[in-house]
Specification:
Organism: Actinokineospora bangkokensis
Radius of gyration: 17 Å
Number of domains: 1
InterPro entries: DUF2771
Distance between the termini: 54 Å
Number of strands: 11
Pfam families: DUF2771 (PF10969)
Order of helices and strands: HEEEEEEHEEEEE
Number of helices: 2
Strand content: over 45%
Protein name: DUF2771 domain-containing protein
Length: 144
């Protein structure tokens, strides 16, 4: 019986990696919200993977990625409302495996009103040269 269980456990499909967002003493773990399988030419969406986390103005969001993400190229994209209430989109630099980067702290400019969305994005290279975002882990802030 134990041998059968071990064999069956070894055949299980690996679960999708989760990215964890931390703010104000709270955490939310997100699975991939959108993923493109380049080999099969398929798109997978999981609207339930979008997580929500309250973030106070002028407070950072810490983002932790597992090895399945940091072993490739990844970056953080984000949107926020500036001091005038205008939406601003931004992004971190791209992190490569050689950077050994497993976390990122997102800090908005002083006076920003509200973080709207933070998105960890995994990048793959098509034909070895053309970057393409293949997986998104998304965190939004709830309406006030």
């Amino acid at each position: 019986m134990a041998a059968t269980t071990a064999v069956l456990a070894g055949c299980a499909a690996p679960s999708d990696p989760e990215v964890t967002f931390y703010a104000d003493g709270h955490a939310a773990a997100a699975g991939p919200n959108l993923r493109f399988d380049l080999a099969q030419g398929r798109e997978y969406r999981d609207p339930d993977a979008l997580v929500s986390l309250r973030v106070r103005p002028d407070k950072p969001v810490q983002i932790s990625v597992p090895a399945e993400v940091s072993d490739g190229v990844w970056a953080v994209a984000f949107s926020y409302l500036d001091a005038q209430g205008q939406r601003v989109d931004g992004a971190s630099k791209a992190f490569y495996p050689s950077d050994n980067q497993h976390a990122f702290t997102l800090t908005l400019p002083p006076g920003s009103q509200k973080l709207l969305l933070a998105s960890v994005q995994k990048v793959e290279f098509v034909n070895g040269i053309e970057p393409l975002v293949t997986t998104y882990w998304n965190m939004e802030t709830p309406p006030e």
